Each structure stands twice: as structure tokens, then as C-alpha cells.
């Protein structure tokens, strides 16, 4: 029998639409054809399982082969196969879903798993015309007494069906590759596509006789079957250049949506590449994308691993992911599983949890910043680390500092450092007064985290340890006695104003402890926060040298007494030296001013 006809479509421009708009990336053609071949194989297994196919199933595999000389790519399977009538029904009626009909027909059977049927043998097949001038199908149905059929089409709505020359059950799709797509006749190119999209399909895939896929990835197995080394080996399979992860979460849910997978917590550094080694999204072991922003909460985008859900179709759009109800449920489920895992680790192995906090803390802080519900789950396992290296939960730390660090307004003041090396003098000053200092020195996130905590913890205030003098950072309402008279305080301020000659400086004389510096320079808290936020947001203008500094002259220090008694020339040298020392303690002294300070120091030492 030979027949000619016209493909049933609503427009004769279907092929340009397929080529230019339906699939944005031409390499998708191979994923679609392999998915269809897998579909045909799974259908045969299904029919055999329910007794509707009595023949020998044999070895089911998908074979991809290249003939560079002939300019063809062939995708072959030993699956269910098609008769001429099947081809007319499933191929010529574009967008008719053979898989959908099949699942509907056998949905009430209690054997096999209809979720294993991957695709829609119709529109996906036509992706072949993105790279081919001509496509041929040769197929032999599994049905008893069936005859082989051949279908040919040259990229128009016209096709031809004729008897085929196939002796074994299954289907061969032969693509005559177009001149502008010759790149796909390269074996390495096809191997790359298969590695990307088909690396974990459940039936063997061969490229020119070489198996390229792992048919049983660990997310398809029960956690009881797996050991730590299995999870680590799979991580290396996904990300061969990355260090071992901290720990992982095995996902497995079948209601109210279907989802499996494994998520890994990687080690995080301040310079972590946000766009490297993303989570991979699969549908029935077929790779879809690694752009999972709407599937996974934003703060967990730095996790690694695999999520597989048959409820997400192969060809997804951003708008689909944003609006689909199942995707939103998956998002919430992943958040809950991560929170539960963190709580479990904290309760069972707190010491180990603390050791991992540098990396884990990034996720927790990011989650607290971006998801109010996550804060409720994570607040009991969120840790704060002080300058002595001790860890506290939020409640533990408040109890630790409450007695010593409550100000006159009944606010508990949390002192912190974002650069303990540069702020060592200020940390030391805080310790002298029995104050505790937190380390919040992750430049990527902690400036935002501080503001978030301050809004969430009642009666609290977060202040950087070098933002003011200690007495003002924690104002208990008790004033220290000054050794200077009002007249002397006025005089020393005038000497500093005349010598420094800088109207941008906020000069003030204070009664500070005698073991503090003679001059203390601080950046007002509001300006410092603005600078930090601007820096992390990429707004460099605000992050530069501050336009205003507070200069606190320690009236109780012996050097201030010495300045008052010195001659004018000596006064000037001492004022400049004390001021430069204060700048140096804030890492604000550089260039010519630093050179002058060194020269002046040498001169003073030599006297």
C-alpha cells in the first residue's frame, strides 16, 4: 500500500513556526526524539506488564547513530512501534498526544506506572525539522501480524506513507541533516547534547554503540538503599570540579504532587560564584533546565543537585513556572524539607552543625531575609558567632549579653564587627568593659542581615563596634567624670579645630576611660549602614571615604593633658599624631597622609 496526503495542521506555516518559535534551542530536537523513543519503550513494558503484549520484550534500548557521509542522524528504539494507521494518527495530526491517549486508556490498570510515559509523540517529533531537510520514519508495530510502514516528509505539509523494510519491532527516525545544521553530524556535539538532557534516562541510550547514560541515578532509589559514599559519588558525577558537599537532603513525595530528587549543601565562601553548578530540573529523568528560580525558593538557589517531577512538562516557559499550582507546592515543600533537615542536624549534632555554620549560615541568613515564613522555621537554629569563636542561638545570645548590654531605654545592644582585624582596637575596648562583640563579617549578606534581625528582635539595637565610643554605643545614662574643666575642654577643642582645619569633622570632647585612645574616630551609624548597603548593592559612590566623621577627644587621656601644656609647635605635632593614630585605627589613613604620619613618628621617637 502506498499513500500520499497532507498533514492535518491549522496552518501551512507550521514548519517555520516550529523552527523559529516553538523551540528556541535547536539542540532540543535530539532530546525530543530520544524522549519519544523512551516513551515507545515504556509503553511496551507497560503492555507486557498488564498482559496485553505476549511476545518477548527483549533488550529495550535507544540507539543514536551518525552517518557523516550520508549526512544522516538515526534514532532507533525497540519499543511499541507503529502501523501505517498509527503513523497517520499520531504523526500527521500535529499536536495530538499519543502519550495522553495511552495513559487515559490504561489509567485504571493496577500494574506498571503510567508516569513513566514521557512525552507527546506529535509536536516533539516535529522538532526534527529544526535541523533536517527530510525526515523518514520506518516502524514495525508490536501488534501480531503487523506490517512495517514508512513515512517521509521534506519539511512541508505533504507526506508519503509506503510499506517499510523493517524486520524487528520498533521505530527508526532518520534525519537528513540540513546544510545549516551540519554541526550535529559531529559525534562530540551529539554526545554533549545527550549528556546534558538524557544522562539519567531509565533505558540504555547508546551513541554509535557506546552507552552514555546512568539508568538508575540515586534519586530514583530509596534512601535505605544508599550509603554516604553513593551520595558523594553522585555529587561528583554532577559536579566533578566541586569540593565535597556538607550534607544532603533526599526528596520523595507522591502527594499532592510527584517529586523526587537529592539536594546538596555546598561549601560557601564570600567569593562564591552564584551562577556556577546550578540545581538541575528533570521530568521523568529527562533534563529540562537549570533555571529553577520559580521551582526552588530564591534563597536556596545556591543548593546543588537534582529535582525530578513528572508534573512539570518537558517544554516549560517562565510564565508556566510562575503560575503553575504544582510548582508553587513544590517550592513550599522544598523550603520545609530544608528547614526540617537543618533543625534535625542542629538537634542531633550541634558541634558538627557549628563547624558547618560558615556555609550553612549563608542559606539561613538569606532565607530569613527573603522569606518571612522561613524565619519562623529557622529562628531557633540561626547561630551568632562572637569574636571569641563561640556560637549562640538568638535566644542564647540575648540572655548572654542582656545584663551588661542593656541601655537606659531598656534596649539590648548587640555590638558587632564586620572586619575583626581592622576593628581589633575597638573590640579590645569593648572587652575592657565586659561587653561581647559578634562577628558579622560576610560581606555579601551580613549588612542586610543585621537590619533584618533588628526589625525581628524586639527591644534590640545592632551597632558596629567602631560606630561610636563605647559609652555612647551602650548609653546606660551614667556620665563619667572629666578631669578637664569647662575652660580646658573649650581650649583643647579650639586647638584641634585650628590644627585640623576641617569643617566636615564633628569634634567633641568626652570623658572616656584613660586606657582608651587619646582620639577616637567613628563613622555615624546611619552613614555607615548606608555605605555598607550601597557597597553590597554595587552603588560605589556611597561606599567611598565618608563625608563626615565624629572625632571624640578623650579629655581624660594623659596626651590631651600634654597638648594643653605644650608650646604651639609641639601642640600641632601632637594633635596631628593623635588624629592620625585615630584614622589609622579605622583604616582611613593612606597615601601622602600616611607618609607624613610615618615621618612624624620617626621624628618623635628620635627626640
Automatic annotation (TrEMBL):
Record protein name field: Chaperone protein HtpG
GO terms of molecular function: ATP binding; ATP hydrolysis activity; ATP-dependent protein folding chaperone; unfolded protein binding
InterPro entries: HATPase_C_sf, Heat_shock_protein_90_CS, HSP90_C, Hsp90_fam, Hsp90_N, Ribosomal_Su5_D2-typ_SF
Highest taxon of the lineage: Bacteria
Pfam families per UniProt: HATPase_c_3, HSP90
CDD domains: HATPase_Hsp90-like
Keywords: ATP-binding, Chaperone, Cytoplasm, Nucleotide-binding, Stress response
Organism: Microscilla marina ATCC 23134
Positions annotated to bind ATP: 32, 36, 77, 82, 97-98, 171, 318
Family recorded in the similarity comment: Belongs to the heat shock protein 90 family.
